[in-house]
Specification:
By secondary structure, this protein is of the alpha/beta class.
């Protein structure tokens, strides 16, 4: 067999998870121990694929492969945006891979099911996706991945008109093929049973102009299925064997699956992929290339017709509009009848937002729909708001209205993100997320005096029923999971006030989506009472809506806080603040202080629950940390005072009771953490002696010190030590790094040394590693010389 061409396409994607008001992701308990699912899947998949290990029989690293440089891949814009700001090393690794291989293609912007959208929304999704790609990769995309490969003729026509050269579909999405020189209806051959020749690009022609077309690459359904859904995926050897078998007729082999297959769905699958790319494929005469390279390399011989369909629903696109039977997770008796009323409810808001955009947009924007397409440059930061408005202002300029309308349109698109329908229940986090976009859309229109038909929306949504009786219907899900996450200017003021009295901190320059334009206020304390009041001006960064507020708040001890906020009233504000301050300073009773706040600063009252989403937990954590520090100091002093007696009990073979074990373990662990952190700044051989003594002492007392916190600190400390070695590999620095690694083994800590391995590996490959660096590499588990 001659040259075998293989394309492995990974579709990497996560839905947008940010709170639509704060644009920050709140904690997702189901992703524990990580903060949210983006963090978790980055750790399990996106990062490992950038630095995929090839491991020898001893478990030592012989190679580190950037899988993205060998893959054909699409990474959703919402995921790339998150990576850019939260995992910049992964983001840059992906971009570097594309510069090397050109394997990336674009994706429709926020994973909307395009056959269910109208033409304007399809075009905006394609234009935003292509613009996002060009912004991140510095070139125009040749191909575009359709969300869930959902397609029909209208979608393909628009892709052709928007200059997209190719896309990738499942074999079952093709209906018929014929030779390019075929001219008669009888020339068409039915392939609706999935029998189309996979791998070889096929041409799809624009219905009104055969000089305009795009190519479609159909992937191998069998290999792709087994790679994605097999119990353990496919080994590198089995993948290459299957590819060679499928290429028996000389056709290229294209495999496509969710990128999360490699590491998230199948643990260590990224390693199988890296070994296939670096060793198995070259040895077997298999040439790995991207889909874009394949389309350039392989001239189609046939044209194709497709049906309205997708790769994840055997019913076409029913999964996103009806109870078709396709779902992921849930119980056997669950249904997805909620899908249809959910879509109908969102359609109510979408229709209203489009009417308002048409009705109000023409006055404030020169061409409203063209401005919407161009607004992606503002979202990406490619152009400033001022420059954008200068290009698009209408005959009756009102920047706040114009920006509010555009933001409403952005959220009208986001609320159709496909994941809202994909899974098993109305109350799932993905469905709740699209409802939050709907709420943000409603708020934006309300702010410009264009309220939405909320009653009609909620009545329609109430027809959707959760499979969980405790969640109830759509209206209950809305009240329970959407309304509490809303953030307006008054809530931001409440948050500012809470931080003022709980943390004794003045306001940050920015809080959530708002810039703090000005703030003046005072803080007073008297015994357990802490009071604060002030005036604040906020401006929303996206809409530029500016508002003024006054607030007053009292912290009564513990976590009990009461406050109120309203719009300014200059005639009574100064007098009121003086009365509140005097009441706190003079020791007035708590009821009198609260009465002053309620009567003078209301009507909007707030407590700890009014902190920004996720921030209430952070404030509680902060209070807990302060308490922890106080306990720690006490425990450490107690341990120091009674250490000889504790050691005597241990020598006598007396097992410490729980009442003594817990504080002793806590005190020793704290001291160990401090010594570990100090060791990297003191590279002398004696720097580890105290830490090693603590380990021995803990063992004598029968106390474990391998805590998660110790492992986290040691991981950071080892990385810092390795970075210092690479910066200047002196003997002292090498000894410091090796000593830390020995201490890790002594403690039995399972620390993360991946980044340290990667830095040393890169130095070795680049020829920048002397004997000291190689000694550190060997201790880190790199197979030096291999």
């Amino acid at each position: 067999m001659g040259d075998v061409r293989l394309v492995v396409h990974g579709h990497f994607y996560q839905p947008p998870r940010e709170n639509p008001w704060t644009e920050e992701i709140a904690a997702e308990p189901s992703a524990a121990p990580f903060h949210d699912w983006n963090e978790r899947i980055t750790a399990e998949c996106y990062r490992p694929n950038g630095w995929a290990r090839v491991i020898d029989e001893r478990g030592h690293v012989t190679d580190i492969v950037n899988n993205y440089a060998h893959l054909s891949f699409s990474i959703g814009p919402t995921l790339m945006s998150w990576l850019e700001h939260n995992a910049s090393d992964v983001y840059e690794r992906v971009r570097a891979a594309d510069r090397e291989s050109g394997g990336a293609i674009a994706q429709a912007y926020n994973h909307m099911i395009l056959p269910l959208a109208d033409e304007r929304d399809i075009r905006t999704q394609v234009r935003w996706g292509m613009a996002d790609f060009e912004h991140r990769f510095g070139r125009r995309a040749a191909g575009l991945w359709l969300p869930e490969t959902a397609v029909n003729d209208d979608v393909l026509r628009i892709l052709v008109e928007e200059g997209v050269r190719f896309t990738i579909l499942a074999p079952g999405q093709a209906v018929a093929v014929r030779a390019l020189d075929g001219a008669h209806a009888a020339d068409w051959v039915d392939v609706s049973d999935g029998s189309i020749t996979a791998g070889a690009p096929h041409r799809w022609f624009h219905p009104d102009d055969r000089d305009r077309y795009l190519d479609i690459v159909f992937y191998d359904g069998s290999i792709s299925h087994d790679l994605a859904f097999g119990l353990t995926g496919l080994s590198s050897q089995e993948l290459v064997r299957r590819v060679r078998g499928a290429a028996g007729d000389g056709s290229p082999v294209v495999v496509a699956t969710d990128g999360e297959t490699f590491g998230h769905h199948h643990k260590f699958a990224e390693r199988a992929l890296s070994y296939a790319f670096a060793h198995e494929a070259p040895a077997a005469g298999v040439r790995v290339l991207s889909a874009a390279a394949l389309v350039d390399d392989y001239a189609p011989t046939h044209e194709v017709k497709v049906r309205e369909s997708s790769w994840s629903c055997v019913h076409g696109v029913g999964r996103w509009r009806e109870d078709c039977g396709c779902s992921t997770g849930g119980q056997p008796e669950w249904n997805q009848a909620w899908r249809a009323p959910l879509r109908r409810a969102l359609d109510v808001l979408r229709a209203r937002s489009a009417d308002v955009f048409d009705g109000r947009g023409g006055a404030v924007l020169r061409d409203p729909w063209a401005a919407r397409d161009a607004y992606i440059d503002v979202v990406l930061g490619r152009t400033s708001i001022d420059a954008f408005l200068a290009d698009h202002r209408g005959p009756e300029p009102d920047d706040v209205v114009a920006l509010s309308l555009l933001e409403a349109q952005r959220h009208a698109l986001l609320m159709y993100t496909s994941c809202g329908w994909f899974f098993n229940d109305l109350a799932g986090i993905e469905t709740v997320q699209v409802l939050r976009y709907a709420a943000r859309l409603s708020d934006l229109l309300d702010e410009i005096g264009e309220p939405v038909p909320v009653d009609e929306f909620l009545d329609t949504l109430a027809q959707a029923k959760s499979n969980d009786p405790q969640e109830g219907d759509g209206r209950e899900v809305w009240e329970r999971h959407v309304v509490p996450t809303r953030v307006d200017a008054e809530r931001v003021v409440a948050h500012l006030a809470l931080v003022r009295v709980l943390e004794r901190e003045g306001p940050a320059a920015a809080i959530g989506p708002f810039d703090v334009i000005s703030h003046e206020g005072a803080l007073v304390e008297r015994g357990p009472l802490v009071g604060a009041g002030g005036r604040v001006t906020l401006e929303h960064r996206r809409t530029r809506r500016r508002t003024d507020h006054v607030y007053a708040v009292v912290h009564m001890g513990g976590l009990e806080v009461f406050g109120a906020t309203r719009r300014p009233d200059p005639e009574r504000d100064d007098t009121l603040f003086g009365e509140v301050a005097y009441a706190v300073e003079s020791g007035a009773s708590v009821p009198n202080v609260l009465r002053l706040l309620a009567e003078g600063v209301g009507p909007r009252e707030f407590g700890l629950e009014s902190a920004l989403p996720d921030a209430a937990d952070e404030l509680v954590d902060s209070a807990a940390r302060q308490l922890t520090e106080r306990f720690a100091a006490t425990y450490e002093q107690l341990y120091a005072d009674h250490r000889p007696r504790l050691n005597a009990l241990a020598r006598a073979g007396y097992p410490l009771p729980p009442e003594l074990r817990a504080p002793a373990e806590f005190a020793l662990a704290r001291r160990l953490e401090s010594e570990i952190a100090r060791a990297v700044d003191d590279p002398s051989a004696d720097s580890f002696r105290t830490a090693q003594d603590l380990v021995r002492e803990a063992r004598q007392l029968g106390l474990p010190l391998a805590s998660p916190r110790a492992a986290e600190i040691m991981s950071r400390t080892v990385l810092t030590a390795v970075e210092r070695v690479l910066e200047e590999p002196t003997d002292d620095r090498v000894r410091s790094a090796l000593g830390l690694l020995r201490l890790t083994r002594d403690l039995g800590l399972g620390i993360n040394v991946e980044r340290a391995q990667e830095l040393v590996f890169d130095a070795i490959v680049a020829g920048r590693a002397g004997a000291g660096v190689r000694r550190v590499g060997d201790a880190l588990g790199i197979a030096i010389g291999r």
